[in-house]
């Protein structure tokens, strides 16, 4: 596996870990009778703020990951791997890993800056694929 493709594998594993942690927290907060239900009603117990933040951070990753994977695969398939593209992929991965505690702990405004770094890395990958 190339170092570039390794970033997708690690980002995918981070995504799974983030889901497991957020889901476990939600299950602890509102109980399995709610989390295993079709959720046609609001939970009978409130969720902790940190749990809600973890779920929102996960949702954000659901939106961001496909763009990252597409950009990395585009760079890989077109054989345009450079120090810049490899660096952008690894910085993206680091930013997304840091984004999780930043969101969970309410790091304001740093969470937004971390998100922008990840987005900029994806943009760099797409732009580099056009050059």
Automatic annotation (TrEMBL):
InterPro entries: MAPEG-like_dom_sf, Membr-assoc_MAPEG. It comes from the Bacteria. Keywords: Membrane, Transmembrane, Transmembrane helix. One of its GO terms (cellular component) is membrane. Its main location: membrane. The keyword Phosphoprotein does not apply. This is MAPEG family protein. Pfam families: MAPEG. It is found in: Membrane. It comes from Pseudosulfitobacter pseudonitzschiae. Gene3D superfamilies: Membrane associated eicosanoid/glutathione metabolism-like domain. The chain crosses the membrane at residues 61-77, 84-106, 112-130.
């Amino acid at each position: 596996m190339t170092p570039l493709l390794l970033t997708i594998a690690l980002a995918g594993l981070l995504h799974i870990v983030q889901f497991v942690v957020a889901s476990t927290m939600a299950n602890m907060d509102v109980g399995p009778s709610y989390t295993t239900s079709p959720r046609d009603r609001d939970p009978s117990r409130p969720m902790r703020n940190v749990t809600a933040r973890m779920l929102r951070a996960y949702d954000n990753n659901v939106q961001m990951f496909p763009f990252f994977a597409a950009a990395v695969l585009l760079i890989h398939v077109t054989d345009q791997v450079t120090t810049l593209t490899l660096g952008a992929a690894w910085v993206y991965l680091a930013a997304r890993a840091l984004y999780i505690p930043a969101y969970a702990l309410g790091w304001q405004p740093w969470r937004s800056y971390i998100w922008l770094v990840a987005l900029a890395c994806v943009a760099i990958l797409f732009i580099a694929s056009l050059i």
